[in-house]
Structures are given as structure tokens and as C-alpha cells.
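quick one, 291 residues, struct below
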Amino acid sequence: MNYVLGVIGGSGLYQLPGLESVEEVPTETPWGAPSDVIVRGRLGATTLLFLPRHGRGHRIPPTAINFRANLYALKQLGATHVVSVSAVGSLKEEIAPGELVVVDQFIDRTTRRAVSYFDEALAAHVSMADPVCPRMGAALAAAAVTSGAKVHQGGTYVCIEGPRFSTRAESHMFRQWGASVVGMTNVPECFLAREIELPYATLALATDYDCWKDHEGPVDVPAVIATMKQNVERARQTVRALAATLPDPATSVAHGVLEFAMMTDPSTLSPATREKFRLFFGPYWERSSQG
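---
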């Protein structure tokens, strides 16, 4: 089967050797415009969709990212899987700067973001017990090993509002919670991917030890940027390997989660609302009308 891999991260990721038929695809969604135009290309039998989360030139701060438009745009263009590439601070001694973490859990410490598609017009409830698809996470971890970097499989990502970094007290608190890394961008991204039935996994690139490690001093932005640049090639290699080993999305925990999620009686929805959510529920509505 020909899969379509959505990649959310820095713009440097789509400079992949062997990427063919590259084109820019402007996209609009019912939730507005995504962060930037999406770059589409082919790598072997897999189509890749690249979306710079902060826009080209890193012009969009974390809180201002239109996460709902970003995930919807990828789904609208046919994405069957999504991988997120993100810089994080390490909260554990054993996760050194320059190493990679494939997280499997999230703690949401954001306060100013739209975290669901279902907070207006209709009510639907989707389980987020395990927001990362286990099969997708395992495939991503195996692909990351090919980059030559040390890879940690499993861990918890604390997402803070940003744009400021954590206080030292907050950093120590996150460690007491058992969290592995801290970042600013993967919530609500991970939740929205599940709500739109996309298998999702995160490749977290550790750039620093946050500020809990006293002798390290506060987070140094130039050092973070330098480490990120070193990790770009590792991320590219990981994406290349993952594109060839994507698991069947029909076996993902994300598959079919919307079938019984909607609590609102479909007959009460306005034509505009039905159209807005057709990408989500259309197949189930059609099946219901035929049954």
C-alpha cells in the first residue's frame, strides 16, 4: 500500500536526498490556514507531506500555532501517519543533549490553546489514555536507531505554554512527576492527531538539561540552536528510514476511534456543521444511512 507520511517540524527536514516530485501545496481548512504551505514529495513508494510547525523563518511562537489547521491540512491531503520532530529539554541525567527520545506519554501544562476539534458545534469524546500509537512509536524508534544517535524508547513529555523556559522550581517539579523531557509544541498536536484518527508519534531531540541541573546553568539559547543543527541530519535519516517501514494504519489504536465518539445526534447538526466535520465523521454517517 502507498502510505502518506505527514512530518511536522523544521523546514530543513524536507531537504532529503532522493525526494522526488517536490511541490508546494497551499492549503485552507475550516479552522483557518496552517503554519505554512505544505511541501509534498515522494520517497520511494511513500508520499511525504512536510509542514514547518513555526512557519518558515520560525515566525510563529508556540502558543500562536494553529494546531487544528495543521493536523486537518495533513489529513485533508491524504496523510495516513504523522510524525512530529521537536526540540526538548532533558529532565533525566541519562538523556544527554544530542540524544533522541521517542516519547509515549504527555502531560499538558498549557493554558491558552484550543486543545480539541470538539469544543464547538458538536460533542465528541475520544480516549487519550495512550496518545502515541504504539506501533508507530516502535517503528519510529527503530528508524531513529539508523541515524547513529542514542535513542530512548518511551518517556513522558511535559508541554509548557512558553515562550519562556521553565523556572528551576518547575523543572524540579517535572522531574518529581517522573517526566523525561519538557517542550512547548507537542500539545495539543498529539491529541488532535488522535481526534482525526491519525497514527502519531514524536521524535524528541534533546538539546539541553533544562535548568534542573544546577551546575549546567540556565538554558542557553545559542547552545540549543547549535545542538538542534547537529540533530537535523539525524532527523532526516530517521524520516527516510521511517518512510520505508510505516506500519499498517488499520492496526493503529487511532483507527476507528470516531465511530462511536460523537454524542450529538447527527440529525440536529446544521448543514454547515456537517460539512465542517465531514472529513471526521463522513464515512460513519454514510455507513449509518446505508444500514
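The chain has one domain: 4-290.
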